[in-house]
Design brief:
It is a single chain. The protein has ten helices and 20 strands. The N terminus is likely disordered. The chain has two domains: 337 residues, Alkaline Phosphatase, subunit A; 84 residues, 2-Layer Sandwich (Arylsulfatase, C-terminal domain). The protein is of the alpha/beta class. Helix 4 packs parallel to helix 6. The two termini are 38 Å apart. The protein is globular. It binds 2-acetamido-2-deoxy-beta-D-glucopyranose (3 copies).
Amino acid sequence: MTAMLMVCWLFVCSALSVSSANPPHIVLIVADDLGWNDVSWNNPDISTPNLQGLASQGVILNSSYVMPVCSPTRGALLTGYYPYHLGLQHGIIKGDTPSFLTTTKSTVSEKLHDNGYTTHMVGKWHLGMCNWTYTPTYRGFDTSGGLLGGSAGHYDHMNGNGFDFRINTTVDHSYDGIHSTEAYTDIAINAINGQDPDKPMFLYLAYQAAHTPLQTDPAYEAQYSSVVNDNRRIYSGMVTQMDDSVGRIRKALEDKGFLDNLVLVFISDNGGDVNNGGNNYPLRGSKSTYWEGGVRTPAFVYSKTHLDVTGYTQSNFLHAVDWYPTLLEVAGVSQSDNIDGVSQWDMIKSQGASARTEFVYNIDEIKNTAAIRVGSYKLTKGSPGSKSDIYDVPLTNRRRRAVRNRATSVKYRLFDIDADPTESRDLSRRFPDLVDQLKAKLDTLSATFTPAHVPAADSNGKPRNWGGVWTPGWCAGDL
Ligand SMILES: *[C@@H]1O[C@H](CO)[C@@H](O)[C@H](O)[C@H]1NC(C)=O
Ligand SMILES: *[C@@H]1O[C@H](CO)[C@@H](O)[C@H](O)[C@H]1NC(C)=O
Ligand SMILES: *[C@@H]1O[C@H](CO)[C@@H](O)[C@H](O)[C@H]1NC(C)=O
């Protein structure tokens, strides 16, 4: 944190910028499968007053890009590397496969921890659990609570046929029957209340809302009784339940006296899953695709004291990899890691330009698909994903008509996202030279890939070998 100080000597005064030895508390909230059209500032049919209240007093990020699915986004977020440099580009980490976020790269939690922060991880991890070395308390978090895998019943915390809920490393049944959103909020509030106020706090709170299974407390579903589509009704309730929880988090931060020295970031890990209640209208596509609806998701930054300009929408782009250097800059921690991310703190804080002019949506050498962005232009290689329509909010329970996979026949597509954010006009035949330039850039970038790490399932990991609980301890450590 820097502050202006007036220094006077013999009637001559000058302003000095001083660095404060009082780094801000940082709260990073990640929603699960929350799409563009699933927050009230993009869709007034959804009730998210707490999120919108914070967003409107902060900066709404209108071009916040993430990966198409969970684990890759979380890996990018925590390390500052694109998933194609982590071996995470091909998809999610499955519970019974020995796959994980590599320990050869630092996490933002490790960096903050090493620089005096108390670090808390609450909620869904989904970055590997076959060896303890891949789990939160071994990746820079002082405390952790929640789900190691990718999804579980919101009330029974069963991830497939194994129980998956721990406080630190210990299996914990005290939240059985309590919705994950409420459970994670309670654990996060305990962490806030127990925080030594003389030390800065980093809280990484990763909800499993509004991811499947679609379950919410009846009172939340009842708020949407006019919504006929069952998935959309329950999903909307889950979003509002999370919003109430964010209100509880804000209150706990205020009661603790942390609001005056706080930076809070809210993002979603990927776009809405249109088959499971989420919606990205008017953006094209769904979760699991490179279409904008899969990767351009709701986000904002709130801070009472650390933003020079507030109450505006920042439409310059940033990518999930940028949070690692951005949060470290917020914390006053210098880093010279050879990462893919760049700090966007100046853009966010001072309504500045983006610190990047291009980014990689993904490079997946197994599917032989990729997409990159340079300025306003987006080049996609291969199919960006078969859920390729612009999906309106479903009004009935009728199944959607099957989508023709019209994306397979064309090798490269070119879109001008600023002019055409819904990707309705493929410009590749009109601008062949531009396609060639972007292809050349993509080829250069692709050459640096780390092979996707997608090992086969290992029956040693199955919960039946571990008393019915997902348990680390059946794969080797990282190289
Ligand atoms: C979790 O671990 C931290 C750090 O060792 C400790 O302070 C805290 O009490 C633990 N929480 C529980 C519930 O055991
Ligand atoms: C945010 O992005 C959407 C979708 O591209 C666009 O319609 C809207 O005008 C943008 N808003 C601002 C304030 O830039
Ligand atoms: C887990 O990783 C650690 C550190 O690399 C290693 O010493 C240990 O043997 C691994 N556990 C198993 C079960 O292989």
